[in-house]
UniProtKB/TrEMBL annotation, chains A, B, C, D, E:
Family annotation (Pfam families): CorA
Protein name (database record): Magnesium transport protein CorA
Regions crossing the membrane: 296-316, 328-348
Lineage: Bacteria, Pseudomonadati, Bacteroidota, Flavobacteriia, Flavobacteriales
Gene3D superfamilies: CorA soluble domain-like (3.30.460.20), Magnesium transport protein CorA, transmembrane region (1.20.58.340)
GO-annotated cellular components: plasma membrane
Gene (UniProt): corA
Family: Belongs to the CorA metal ion transporter (MIT) (TC 1.A.35) family.
InterPro entries attached to this UniProt entry: CorA_cytoplasmic_dom (IPR045861), CorA_TM1_TM2 (IPR045863), Mg/Co-transport_prot_CorA (IPR004488), MgTranspt_CorA/ZnTranspt_ZntB (IPR002523)
GO MF term set: cobalt ion binding; cobalt ion transmembrane transporter activity; magnesium ion binding; magnesium ion transmembrane transporter activity
Length: 354, 354, 354, 354, 354
């Protein structure tokens, strides 16, 4: 997952087509599940070994093979070899750095997406997910356990909706749709974070880290953008391409999916603009606070410095200072100083500094 | 209505084509009205139940069915089933999150717009509105009561203008035109808010919330943009498409509508630039005010600190301080201090700090 | 004229094709003039009533009918009815909010422009101007009296240049060229305002309204942009279109006109960037000035606060303070204080604060 | 030359095709030189009068006629009349406000460029230069004396390189290439100015005019952009057009020229971004300096104000102040004050203010 | 290498096609190596003189000739002459200022790239590298020693992967891929620098040079951009072109390479946005720090200035000041002052200034 450092090292000059997993090695155990279904029947099975998959090759049903754990590169190589997939595609399956894209091969389609969620610590996590789609199968590769497909599994089991009646291309659509739907939730949570920060700024409830938090938000929205924006091209290309893997019946759903991605993209850009606005807001907050501090200082100093001066005058030790002898001097002076005090208060009041 | 949080939750993985209303559930009662007209006759009727609509199916007149209250999803499903509309379209009718768009189906056109207005509290409200247009009918779905079509109803009743003589496509145009015309009013009100804030900034009549108000304006203009900009594509596609639902006679009006949308878009962008300028203005206002405060402090301190020092000198208790004995010392000192006082005043005057 | 509030109200839902003047009602008296000419002859006439125009219908000469005063909508309706013009075009003639555009009708071309000038108060005024061009006539509609066509009238009268030898399309070109040429003058005046402000900023000759003045310049350049930029499309479309109203002989002049508009556009964008730079300059000016103020305060305080402290020490009333008794204490102390004084002065000098 | 005010007045409504020079009238004497050459021979001649040019009309050699001094409009009109050039082209030759462009006429090509250099006072100067290219001649019009073609003259005289063997189109290429090559030098000098300012900012070596200098750089880069960017279209159009004036042999050089212009454009944009960064740097410089000033004030005030207060306490004249009588009070007090002094110094040290 | 000043002088008007090296003359010794291979055999040889290369002309193997040291222009001219390469291409090989591009000639392809790395001093270095590709050879020209091709040499020697089985076009791909792979490493190192600076800003660990460091990062990212972005066009054109030099088998790798370049470009743009954010962060850091300083000053001054004033009052020498005689005055006064002291502390606490 790319939550911390999303640009990771790959060995220079490694032979093209080499399957290298560049994410967290200890990330996830291998987990393989299969759904093999048609309108009437459904077989759901958890597999121990990738070779158990071969038995579904002859099935005329739609087969969904879901594999979690990209660090198990040997499994990817095995399945790739069995189905005779292109080495560069295998490289991309394991390469978590690969951006969303679609590649058309003669025998299959290859789609890369990013699953986004917030970890328990509140950091943004990016999970690499690939789909290989043939005429009657979809193989999905997830970086690790945990996904957004539970509702789809439920629909497959219950047979609700049209999913069991349709082909592999509709399954692909459903999986992609689940990923995109999840973006809406993510954007919503993200939006809450932005609005929380906005409220903090409004209530002048900021601290030294506020600038840093805004910078983190900026980085997160950039990462989200990076995951979401290339999807537009991907889905657009599915719409445009004439492929035996995408049927006309599914096309209208793909169009709907495209609509959703545009909506997510728009929201991403709106939050992006809003976050840039936050920095400006923060700057004015700081400046206003400084103004506040300066005003207190200026009011106190402007009132007491002249008064102290007057007191200083009559603290001088000249032998000939007629006022010192006069009986009411002290009280008159107090009067004068109180006058000055309230006069300045009034002046500041009128200036709206108080 | 999307006045507060315009990105709302949708359940992940809900079956595509499911009609889900994501807005405020208690928003509005169901309200159905029908206008059935041709050049000679007009029938206007308020219906209790959606099934009463079916009776107009056989009419060869133009029929406008207006339905308020998107939360009544069962009604949408009923009419959708009756007219055999596509489930994804039904989903979009209820989905207030859907952005403005146009979909061409074989038997009808589907257009999504956003109605914008300011609530009594001054917040920007976005109302989702859909049109389904067939050869001789327009069905409009509004999120809630209250719209901008009263003038159109009036024209239908009175038979003024060409509306009663034209087809359903002209009715669609008229409804869209009313929505767009309303944008002009909204933009005007919005503009007044911007200019008010600008005047406040000019008259230095700001407060701590000014930054927040500017941020609110930014958000509102982004929401307006989001509603207005996709409309350009919508109307442009109507212009370009060869559909039996849009006649040549109406086309010139569509072109005029396009002109209006471009105008609204331009105004939106102008206000957007102006709002960004406001933040800069506000920053200079704060800084100028700080300068003001600092000047007062500096003037007072610069005048009285040296004077206090002098008074301090002659408050020392050394036994041998010749000046203390001299009879006129005190008065000479006053003279010196008054000289310093006016000298510094003159200095600040010349520096234009006073 | 749109000098103050350039987005004005139009009644919602008014019947499309209704001629409504949305500008200042009392703006201008109706003024009609006609130039009817060919290479040999010229008839120039001021008309009292629009119906007098009909007499030129049969003339085979080029006829220029210039009508000032858009508030006289009944005149526009009369002439529109007489020549059988499209109602939407008549609406646009009176609608000062209409942006520059070109519409091709079968029997005529319709062109909308904006005339820009600075009023005597220095505010930017935008005047709406329309041209209807047929095979042998140009009708121009101006919002009010005063235009940039006096040179063209002169050329028509004197017969200098090629204007009398060419068709109506050349007259259209000449009128548009005069409008665009005037943009150059306007931009020049505008540029002087920008440079004046720049000089003020340079000479630190600013005041509290400077930010407001910059904001006004921003608004004006946005308005100019709004008038100038759509013109590019207008003239480009004239170049591209194959119309009987534009002859090949005129085309090269249209191309030249396009060049000029591009030039104006470029200048507009350059000034736009320069104005954004001004705000930054102003911010640094304010900050520099604050630095100046703070330095004065700091120098005075840093010098006199320690000195005052020393004086305070020897103003204490302890019974046992050996220095007080010593004969030269006072003079030594003066020496020390003068040393401190010049020492600090030297320190500030070296820090370049003096 | 456009070094000071690059948007100059042109009389409104002057007849299109009128040759008007809008630059500095006293700018330059008329200077005419001719190079008439083929692979074997070269005739180089300085002419007194434009009519002497006619004698080269019959030559089958390539003829380069270079004319300096655009203020001599009658000369331009004479040559234009002789060769039957289009009046609008003649207008553009003299119109220094014309942006870079290319016009194709049937009998010749017309190319406008801008020569850029820094004057001795360091201001950016823009010189208008036009080329008219026929099958066997190039006529170049320069605003004034001084150009970047001396190397080309040298190559013509010596016969080095391929210039003497090629046609007029190669001469055009060579002249344009010399202009573009000069842009590289200019950009380099400009870059030195930018880096110098950057170093000044780095070494905190700024003054009140720094903001103004940055604004000047911004304006200069905008002017350079204005001269360079349209050239891309010009050369691109030469590449694309099928003209008898540009031979295949020359095309590869034109492509190379295009590469160079792209490079200049990129550099211009890089400097543009860098200059915008300078303003930010300057702002932080000012703020850092203010911080510096404030720290000095705060340190001095924080140390001495409490000490002065203590001294003030023991300067009071109460009759019953036990400490005053105690023999070591004074020395203890000194000890306390020295402790406070160093305590605060340590505090500031730890805060890294010292 | 372009690490310091990336826009360097070229003599104006030098004859096009002249081979001029504009980099550091003493940069590198001449180094020539040859790999001549097919699936079975490999000859690797280091050459003293360019003429030794001719012996490989007749080989039907793929030949990779790698030449380091662009300052040795005579060698470039020699090989250019031998293979009859176009003079403009030779000029570009030596011209380190040339941006990445691809040129198609009839007999060969010419590709320019930039190799990027950080020097030991941490400065960004840009090395110019060119490839000339024929049907069975690749000639690479590097500005100096040191490259990113060691892994490729290793693969050639060991025969691992498909490199020895493929044609010259695959070698070209491998070399370009190595350069692009290296961009990932570079970006990573660059990213570490950015994040380091970000952490410094977060921990308020900044100094006066921080603004300068950010400006340096800005410049570096601009340079990286300049090297990376044109590559997209280069590879895209390889994908699109139908050339005998690029076989279908290699095409899929080229597509993969294109993907990688897009990824690098995206990362570059993300870092670019992040760096611009840094400047804002730095500004808030400075302002926060100033706030901190001002608060200390204000607290100290606000507490002690009034107290000093009170002490000053009772330091006056009036003969009639009743309090002075009262026995407990002094202690009461201390009580009052302590009250004021803690009262103000409490006030500041509540204001969250402490």
């Amino acid at each position: 997952m790319g939550s911390e450092n999303f640009f990771r090292k790959k060995d220079i000059g490694s032979i093209p087509g080499t399957v290298v997993y560049v994410g967290d090695k200890s990330a996830s155990d291998l987990y393989i599940e299969v759904f093999d279904y048609n309108e009437e029947d459904l077989v759901e099975k958890e597999l121990k070994n990738i070779t158990e998959v071969w038995e579904f090759d002859t099935s005329s049903n739609v087969t969904w093979i879901n594999i979690n754990g990209l660090s198990h590169v040997e499994t990817i190589e095995q399945i790739g070899k069995h189905y005779n997939w292109h080495p560069l595609m295998l490289e991309d399956i394991a390469n978590t750095r690969q951006r969303p894209k679609i590649d058309e091969y003669e025998e299959y389609l290859y789609v890369v997406l990013k699953m986004l969620y917030f970890t328990h610590e509140g950091a943004l996590a990016v999970e690499h997910i690939s789909f290989v789609v043939g005429e009657d199968y979809v193989v999905s590769f997830q970086e690790m356990d945990g996904d957004v497909f539970s509702e789809i599994r439920e629909r497959l089991r219950s047979g609700k909706g049209r999913i069991r009646k349709m082909n592999a291309d509709y399954l692909l659509y459903s999986l992609m749709d689940a990923v995109v739907d999840n973006y809406f939730n993510l954007i919503e949570v993200f939006g809450d974070k932005v609005e929380e920060l906005e409220d903090d700024l409004f209530e002048d409830n900021t601290h030294e880290d506020t600038a840093y938090e805004i910078q983190v938000l900026k980085k997160e929205i950039l990462q989200i953008r990076r995951a979401v924006f290339p999807l537009r091209d991907v889905v657009n290309r599915i719409e445009k391409m004439e492929s035996k893997f995408v049927t006309d019946k599914t096309m209208i759903f793909i169009k709907d999916l495209y609509d959703h991605i545009i909506q997510v993209s728009e929201n991403v850009d709106i939050y992006r603009e809003m976050i840039w606005g936050l920095m400006d807001m923060y700057m004015t907050t700081i400046s206003n606070r400084m103004n506040e501090v300066m005003k207190v200082l200026t009011i106190i100093a402007t009132i007491f410095i002249p008064l102290t001066f007057i007191a200083g005058i009559y603290g001088m030790n000249f032998e000939f200072m007629p006022e010192l002898k006069y009986k009411y001097s002290y009280f008159i002076l107090w009067g004068v100083m109180i006058l000055i005090f309230f006069g300045l208060l009034y002046y500041f009041k009128r200036k709206k500094w108080l």
